[in-house]
Design a protein that fits this description.
Blueprint lengths: L2 H34 L5 H21 L10 H24 L2 H9 L1 H12 L6 H18 L7 H27 L4 H28 L10 H27 L2 H23 L5 H31 L2 H6 L40
Helix pairs in contact: 1-9, 1-10, 2-8, 2-9, 3-7, 3-8, 4-6, 5-7, 5-10, 6-10, 6-11, 7-9, 8-9, 9-10, 10-11
Length: 356
């Protein structure tokens, strides 16, 4: 493998590691904020996350850490608004459904993404990849899904949340490649639209779900401290989300999201003494087996493609699915790339993570 491939592999592993560490950190922070301090305004908090992310990127642009690269404004606006709506729908889904059904909603994102990419982008997923994803979903389902209480409104909201989340994550990957922009450039341009969308709908949505007014909440020094910490960590979460999807694929990002779910369950038991059963342990072990199989099969298939195509073709050929840690991945131009008792993934991190 050449120097370029080694650098790309290192960058991908770094992006995956940053995503896991920052996501687990923000889950712990938001769990303290929401569960212990009673600040349950998830959608409004997410709008603040995005606003702080935009301000941080604006400072980075001013310091010339990256170059501003404008492109199709309508695409950016549509992408930003769609991301904001998907986060709102995921929070609504959690509000109208049981935790068990909400977990099923998250699990449905992977097969939905596979179907959309197969139908509209003609991507092919081998039987081995499909089998490993099935094992992963089975494990996460065993570990997290408890009850499945159904209702019409909740089911419709979940369906809309799944569709918008899948489309937003696929767009995150395709926009970066189509317009040859980096994850930082895309995040910088889309953040204002995402933040504005959530800032407008957040207070109404949170008020509807919690029967509380975010502006009338008692903001003690402790609450303010955790809000500031959450916003600062969110900069890393949002950046790493775009970066991971740009460097790998939406499906790989969802696999990574379920790894975070298992880590959050484990850390919750070890650090916060959350209830933990043999069912949780069995589910996490099955999920880990699925992740290992997914990474292995992706690595094998990528190596086979490297043998079949020339180096010039390989540079412009996208990986059909990238493993969590791959020995060789196609190079993405300009680099980069978009939570529960829950995670997420939400296109952006969604405060749903801290609800379980």
């Amino acid at each position: 493998m050449g120097v370029g491939g080694e650098k790309f592999q290192l960058g991908t592993v770094g992006a995956l590691s940053l995503s896991v560490v920052s996501s687990v950190s923000i889950v712990i922070c938001n769990k303290a904020l929401m569960s212990s301090l009673g600040f349950n305004f998830a959608t409004t908090l997410t709008s603040w996350h995005l606003l702080v992310t935009f301000c941080s990127l604006h400072v980075a642009l001013w310091m010339k850490f990256f170059e501003h690269k404008p492109f199709d404004s309508r695409t950016v606006m549509g992408f930003g608004v769609l991301n904001g709506i998907s986060i709102g729908l995921l929070n609504l889904s959690l509000g109208f459904n049981s935790v068990g059904f909400y977990q099923m909603t998250k699990l449905a994102i992977i097969p939905c993404t596979v179907i959309l990419e197969t139908l509209f982008f003609r991507k092919k997923f081998s039987r081995s990849i499909q089998m490993s994803l099935s094992v992963l979903l089975l494990g996460v389902g065993v570990a997290t899904v408890t009850d499945l209480q159904l209702n019409a409104v909740g089911s419709i909201l979940s369906l809309l949340a799944i569709i918008t989340t899948c489309i937003a994550q696929i767009m995150t990957n395709t926009i970066q490649k189509k317009f040859k922009v980096s994850s930082t450039q895309l995040l910088y341009q889309s953040c204002p639209y995402q933040s504005l969308t959530l800032f407008l709908i957040g207070p109404f949505l949170d008020g509807f779900l919690t029967n509380q007014n975010v502006f009338a909440f008692n903001y003690t020094s402790q609450v303010v401290f955790f809000i500031v910490m959450s916003c600062l960590i969110s900069v890393s979460v949002n950046f790493s989300t775009f970066l991971v999807i740009g460097k790998t694929s939406p499906v790989t990002y969802q696999v990574l999201g379920h790894l975070k779910t298992c880590l959050v369950l484990t850390f919750g038991y070890v650090l916060l003494h959350d209830p933990f059963s043999w069912r949780n342990i069995l589910g996490i072990l099955i999920a880990v087996v699925g992740m290992v199989l997914y990474s292995y099969f992706c690595t094998v298939e990528t190596q086979q493609k490297n043998v079949e195509v020339s180096p010039q073709q390989l540079q412009v050929k996208e990986s059909e699915a990238a493993p969590l840690i791959s020995d060789s991945l196609s190079k993405v131009e300009n680099g980069g790339g978009v939570v529960d008792d829950e995670p997420l993934k939400v296109p952006m991190w969604s405060s749903k993570y801290s609800r379980e």
